[in-house]
Each structure stands twice: as C-alpha cells, then as structure tokens.
Amino acid sequence: MLAPVDDVVAWGESLDSLLECKTGQLVFEEFLRTEYSEENLLFWLACEDYKKITSDTEMTVAAKRIYTEFVQVDAPRQINIDFVTREEIAENISQPSPNSFDRAQRLIYGLMENNCYPRFLKSEIYQALLEQSEQQ
User: Fold this and answer.
1) Average pLDDT for residues 109-127, to the nearest whole number?
2) Half-sphere exposure of 113 (CA within 13 A, CB side)
3) Global confidence as pTM
4) CA 29, CA 11: separation in Å to the nearest integer?
C-alpha cells in the first residue's frame, strides 16, 4: 500500500495526524490487529461517526450497537475502560446523548496515544512505509 510521502511522515508527528487520514487509519488498524487491540481504533472511529448523528432514533440505535459491540462486559470487541465509565454508559444507554461515549473515547484515545501509537511508530509496518516514501 503506497501512501503519499507527506502523509506517512505526518503520521509520525501525532496520533491526530494519523487518525485524520483514511490510509493512516487502515495502516494503524492493520498494526493494532497484530497486537490484538484493533477494538480501540474501531471504537474510537465508531464514536466519531456517532457524534455526527443528528436523529434521536438513529442515535439510540447507534448507541446500543456501540454498547453491545465494545462496552458491555463480554462484548465481542470489549474495550479496556474502568468500571465507573462502563457503568455510566450502561445507565444512560436508553437515553443516549451526543456525549454518551466521550469519557470512554478519551480514555481509549489516551491508551492508543501512550501505548499503541509509540509502538506503531517503531513497527515494521510503519518503518517500511516510511522507507518506501523516502524513496519516491
């Protein structure tokens, strides 16, 4: 997968630069899959989409889907968040708001930024792309 030089270099500058780029998201997801932690990125992206929903009905459906897939205990892609945050989401899931997942999303972002992202920058996947882009 070839990515523009500027993009690949920018991904090394911040997690935000990486997440703002569709190709960056895909490469990062591929890396996270090797660490069995792609649920973090998938949850974060689901929250980003969730925040764009304007219809109450759609919001309720999306909130329940995110809760079932990522938040509830034993969810297929359960994210690593504290009990209090998990409970807070569970209590508000029947009446979701645009901010229902903000706290959990911040926690997961922090986890990615402090743990996964530094490892991504050192990974063979990223280093190979960086090398490729320097040769373009």
Assistant:
1) 97
2) 13
3) 0.92
4) 13
